[in-house]
Protein 1
Amino acid sequence: MFRLLILFFVILVSASAYAEEKGTFSLVAENDIFHSDRYYTNGIRASWLSAPNGGSSLARKAARLFPLFPEEFTVRTSYAVGQNMYTPKSITQEDPPEGDRPYAGWLYGSVGLIAEDGKRLDQLELSIGTVGPSSLAEPTQKAVHRLIGSDNPQGWDGQLKDEPGFILMYQRNWRSLITNGAFGFPMDVTPHMGGAFGNIFTYANTGFMVRYGQQPDLDYGPPRIQPSMPGSGFFVPENRFRWYVFAGADGRAVARNIFIDGNTFRDSASADREPFVMDVQFGVVASWREYRLGYTQVMRSREFEEQGSRYQSFGAVSFSMQM
């Protein structure tokens, strides 16, 4: 993971050389630290989003050819690296019971295009990486647990096997229903829809977000880690402090989730996947000049049949800065 982060920052510096304006660096961390250490237990993602019409000329030409982007738009290119990890209900058992979620990790890099025309935001992203021991999820979790004095995970010997993976994702957000709310602050509703295809995730999704506060129309919500309600590193800085609160929901019809279904071409641990998953979230975003900080609380419905609770709750912290 450390080597990939070094490579990411090399790409970041190279990408910024193309930009006449500032790009945006974002760091997102998701964790169930306030609840039990199980299921989707941790995710981290570092990304770089170029300035408007920044990035390589090849990327800009590709954006103009993509048929689902709007006719007139500014394009940004994005680069990211990240790691997700998943565990069963109890990490102190060497052999989790049959039907429980298997141990799994996902280490990946992403490249994407973002098109924005003032009324909507379109995102296209390709992620390539690996699941299995090569994802480094096992040593990462064990090192963190030693550092904080938590239980040592016992069942990583049964994790998913090494498998290269990819996800091609497309999402669209609309700005709509902007009106004045209580105390004179504006409120807006941003519906979204999209989907993903690959041996890691395949799903179709739709949902909405309601936001209230000081100029929520200057971004499309804080960035998140896939699969999730879509946000973006994109935001317009201002020379004064601003804030907004938000709440929303996202529903996914899931045809493939390798972290539950198991390896694609090899025998591995698996569970019986639920075909429909719902995320409900709420949170707050604050920004000042080139900096934006967001916190999101997420409640995700049951993802597999033997899951012990009706939903899982976890938090997501995001920090973005233009540089």
Protein 2
Amino acid sequence: MRMDNERPRRASAGALLLLCLAACGADTTTEDGPAHVAFTVRGRMPDVDPVTYAIEETGGPLAADVFEREIEAALAAWRDAGPVRFERGELGSADVTFGWRSGAHDACPSFGADARIAHTGPTTPGTFVHFDAARAWVPRADEGESLYHTALHEIGHALGLGHSGDPGAVLNAEYANAPAVPSLSDRAALASLYGGELDPAPGDLVIAGDVALRHVAPVGVSDYALLDVDGNGADEVLVWRTDRGGGGALMIYAFAPGPELLSTAGPLWGAVAPGAEVRVGEAVGGERVIVSVYDNGREVARALEETGALRLVTEPVEWRVVASRSQGDVDGDGEKEQVSRRAAR
């Protein structure tokens, strides 16, 4: 059963919304370990420490004390996984409020219209997590409508994580065999958004010396560059898979001032040809392109649309390489930040 059916969305040119690298890619293994750790993000809770929460105690099929116990156990699991702290707040003013709902309610999609058993509001102070009160809930179980496991998944959404292609992740969309604690991919997503402790890895991209995209650019199976994809004055970080098992997937990471990870778009499958030389640049007409150059000199260009889509360029195109692998103004403040991949251990 699916936890929910939220779909990643693409925001305006100034705010690419979030999804993550290689979210459904094949798991290639190198001498440095797994080729990728899959995660997605859908937003960022702005400067809230601690995150306050409130629990509505009525309207559900489980006793109020059981509801509270499992919600707080799920919050504790996320607290232990990374940099986010939680504190009990008041109804009406908390950053996240948990409650039961049935059928059509508030401005949310109606429960019962599809397979969703819970859903979460946008990642912003004052958001909510709703559980479908018409389901046959149990406090905690490996199968069925487990309140603890569902709360664990939805809290990840409230913190800004999107669905993951990692089958062992809390944020995987499928409920079967859901883990009881956040996985490495879940923690990599959290650390990419908020910092915090996570062992350095060769797949990390370090930006401005202290900001890191964790586990997104594994050595030997990926490459990266910086380019202002949407023309808003800030460079996005582009990461693509170079191995045949990666499907030529491209991921785009956008940043807010700080810099802080703001959003991502992708994975865009087939963006590059595995084994070909990849160049990223700007066409004469202004569109941004990613070009696969084959050994025989043939070039295949794909335009990066502001909507987050790829378009095959069928007519000949004049373009120039403008992307850098070492620096770019990722947060649009007029100053360039250094970008590097963490060296292999």
Protein 3
Amino acid sequence: MTAATDVRTPETGSDAIDLWTARLVEEGYCVLPDLVARAAVAALDADLAEDFAKTPFAQGGFYGERTKRFGRLLARSRHAAAFVAHPLVQAIAARILSPWCDTLQLNLTQAIALHPGALPQLPHRDQDMWRGPQGEIEYLVNVMWPFTTYRRANGATLVWPRSHGRRALDPMPSTAPVAVELDPGAALLFLGSTLHGAGGNRTTGIRRGMIVSYCLGWLKPYENQWLAYPPPVARRFAPELAALVGYRQHRPNLGNYEGQCPSVLLRGPVPDHLAAIDALRPDQQALVEDHVERQRAGRRVRR
């Protein structure tokens, strides 16, 4: 068990957000113990049991041929929303990502089962899925929620401490990996720039859990959220959750539907023709208003 797991989680408030954000920025990962009730974890795990049983093993060395993975968890279990929308987790993610975006979005929800014989995963950084500048921008925050105990022997996630941020540009990490051992109810948070990988399962049991990640709102997410949660599904979500899976615009005008916020699709019948409405950042709005006023002033002078 890492040292971080010995610290009790404070109340969900500014002090807690400050504490865990600082630790995440310093180490590239942190463990929040006792974040949700074990009964909630068990309920989600039970809802997904049939999916775990029916999903074929993955193909390819990265996903792991003794590993099962599936997404769309918000559509598979009503219990998933409480994890995805956990206020402390979302607040920490917002602290990390907000310098580079207007709004966050859900990058993926993925259930993972490492079966006996699963090999250690290739160490990687999730930010590498996007070909943007590295070393300055954080693109996403990952959250691992264990359904079963995570131990070194059954494939606990391996994390390289302080391998994030500018250190992600180094050819080799300066630290040895840590097997982050977890119990259900805890959560492992790590940055998209942090080197990590699933461990190998040398036991006879199955290691099950869920990864949830949040990314910059202007990126193409790992999981296509609009296909995972089309309007008939997203209408059943709380407005904040629907926004998180993509039913909101990212200024300026990104992700719009016919020039309007895509949340219009969740409000009942949608007209065939909609008026496009500006959705701009304050600086852009001021620039546009100034431009329009100058054009109007010029017209008044010419009259």
